[in-house]
TrEMBL record:
Signal peptide: none annotated. It comes from the Eukaryota. PANTHER family: TRANSCRIPTION TERMINATION FACTOR 2, MITOCHONDRIAL (PTHR15437:SF1), TRANSCRIPTION TERMINATION FACTOR, MITOCHONDRIAL (PTHR15437). This is Mitochondrial transcription termination factor 2. Keywords: Transit peptide. Belongs to the mTERF family. InterPro entries: MTERF (IPR003690), MTERF_sf (IPR038538). The keyword Transmembrane does not apply. GO terms for molecular function: nucleic acid binding. GO terms for cellular component: mitochondrial matrix. GO terms for biological process: termination of mitochondrial transcription. Transmembrane segments: none annotated.
Length: 379
């Protein structure tokens, strides 16, 4: 396929200038930007089973570009192990990919492959975040951020997880990510940690919540300062950070204050009791006040008591519908939830189903033990 590079509108990659050659013929179709569509581009995309109608609707101007790299882009994706349906999906969802030169794409592939465990993992990222991968304007930011995280001693698997889950983190200016890491380091040291274990702590946080770098450093400081003002000790804050998997950065002090005030009133508990409730059920700091109110009164309407909720606040992590469903299942298995502990409701679906099976087997054995003496008397 002959290509001409005249005046490119592509903001995603740099163009390499070639000597002027005959212009590829254009189809008679006129795009929404009043420029004729490149017939070679249309044919190449059709050969890959790309939905041209979807491309026209999404980014019609791409089809009018005089210089495109459809086959080269498809070959790169194919070399990474992508099947034809995957290639078509990527090009449909991010048509600008065909405007990036092979040199730029190869450089991007090599960079991202350096932190991905396999080609399959890289293709998975491209499928989910094609715009981030083909956004060549951020290539230098990505390179600098990857090098910085590697300099911290973070293992390839952790950097790869951040890349897989939140690749936008690498598009940010290096200085912003440095500020977040600096805040995390200062927080760790203030909570009693030391530099020797900082690397392990950072790896755990990023493993728990790979989106941490997307939140500004100020969000971390505000959330931790609020918990300190509420009387939480350093060990308690570390426990909360671990349980919330680093999500404290997503919380606003005002929202947390509303939640704590609500439970202090409805549960009629002291500040110390409230702290223990928050430690046992960190979800009350994470969920919105309307959600917490709905769950609390929903549980009360079912017939449970405030004392039961105080003793097992983690029940608030479940929706009212889930609590009701599990209570009904326990009742059919012979368990009285109103006089027993709510701890039995907690856990994964698999764990809960296993508990119910055990209760049902126990119930059957009880019935059999009752029937056996009666049969002996009749005989």
């Amino acid at each position: 396929m002959l290509r001409v590079t005249t005046a490119s509108l592509c903001t995603y990659c740099q163009r390499i200038k070639f000597p002027l050659t005959p212009v590829a013929p254009f189809s008679k179709v006129i795009s929404s930007n009043n420029r004729p569509e490149n017939q070679y581009t249309i044919e190449a995309l059709c050969n890959l089973s790309v939905d041209i109608g979807k491309v026209r609707k999404l980014k019609s101007w791409v089809l009018s570009e005089t210089s495109t790299y459809v086959s080269e882009t498809a070959d790169m994706l194919r070399d990474l192990g992508a099947e034809l349906p995957s290639i078509a999906s990527i090009l449909q969802n991010h048509p600008e990919a065909i405007l990036c030169s092979p040199q730029d794409i190869n450089a991007q592939r090599n960079l991202w492959r350096s932190v991905c465990a396999s080609n399959r993992e890289l293709i998975s990222i491209i499928e989910k975040f094609p715009a981030t991968f083909f956004m060549m304007a951020f290539h230098e930011n990505q390179r600098a951020n990857i090098a910085y995280l590697q300099s911290l001693g973070l293992c390839k698997q952790i950097i790869g997880k951040v890349m897989t889950s939140a690749p936008q983190s690498f598009n940010q200016p290096l200085q912003r990510n440095k500020e977040v890491i600096h805040t995390l380091r200062e927080t760790y040291l203030e909570l009693g940690g030391d530099d020797c274990n900082l690397q392990v702590w950072l790896q755990k946080l990023l493993s728990y919540n790979p989106y941490i770098l997307l939140w500004p450093a100020a969000a971390w400081r505000d959330g931790l300062c609020f918990l300190t003002d509420q009387g939480f000790t350093k060990d308690e804050i570390i426990s909360l950070v671990s349980c919330l998997r680093g999500s404290i950065a997503e919380l606003k002090p005002e929202t947390m204050h509303q939640a704590l005030t609500f439970f202090e009133q409805v549960l009629d508990c002291s500040k110390e009791e409230l702290k223990q409730i928050a430690i046992c059920c960190p979800a009350i700091l994470l969920l919105s006040l309307p959600t917490l109110v709905e769950r609390f009164y929903g549980i009360m309407d079912i017939g449970l008591s405030t004392q039961q909720i105080k003793e097992c606040p983690a029940v608030l992590q479940l929706t009212t519908q889930m609590v009701q469903h599990r209570m009904q299942k326990l009742a059919s298995s012979g368990y009285d939830i109103y006089s027993g502990s709510l701890d039995i409701i907690l856990g994964s679906k698999e764990d809960f189903d296993m508990i119910c099976d055990m209760l049902q087997q126990r119930q059957l054995k009880t019935v059999e033990n009752t029937i056996t003496p009666l049969r002996s008397v009749e005989e």
